[in-house]
Amino acid sequence: MPTNKNAQLRYQIIDKCLSNWSRRYYIEDLVDACNEALYLYNGETKDGCGVKKRQVQEDLKFIESEEGYGMDIDAIRDGHRKYYRYHTKGASIKNQPINQEELNLIYDALILLKRFDGVPQFEWLNDLEKRLYTTSKLGDNLDSVVREENMDQKLLFLTVTYTNISEEELNHMLYLGTLIALSKQNDGTYTIYMPGTEAGEDYDYYISDSVAKTAEMTYSSVQDDYGNGKNYIPSLKPGESVQVNMAWIVNEKDIKNLYLNLNGTGGCYEITENMCHTGVVYVGKE
Question: Which of 26, 70, 94, 146 is the least crowded, having the fewest Cβ atoms under 10 Å away?
Fold first, then answer.
């Protein structure tokens, strides 16, 4: 299950907890609620490798932020601890306008639905595309087109070598390759930006209908028809190595900011603790 969908599930669970004024939810309770939901929804383990306290704290910040849902959350002190709830009883992110991260999920879903283009009973997709695949001015009318423009695109091709350093043979090993776009700030820190969503002088955001996509590989050379997808290495014996060729179609103007994330968390949507531990590799050009 892609990490961005995990994040959306966490937001929904945290929202449900914060809306419930009849119970006090401390940070540990929110962590447990998220792990329980992830376990029930997609089988992710609740022990050891589940959601950590720091991740839930970041989720709370996102729910409060303007980039997220703009919710007002109270952290109420109870002795040496704090419990969390919405400032207004009955508040919920379900009552908030759709945000950019949700628009990105809609875009990903629409890419999948395009496979049914031309299939009878799916004619409604054409109208849906016209509404969503536009350059739009944010406001009361989301169909206010500012302008349209063409983007030069490139095929970015990378080779990654995986080596089994354990003493056991690995079978059906999942591998992930995601490009994350990072923008360096004046203070030396880096922030994520989603290619195709940044604002301009005369518009608030735009959505692209191109094939350029950094969230998942367009091509991978080693495949195994196992599980949900084919990005698996069939077998890797102790000490054995295998080279995997990966490719993405990207907008040329974004290449200078692209980094390769081989960690299973974070993807192109968020910087996680695990991702910081393993690091990312700069693959763009200065």
Answer: 94
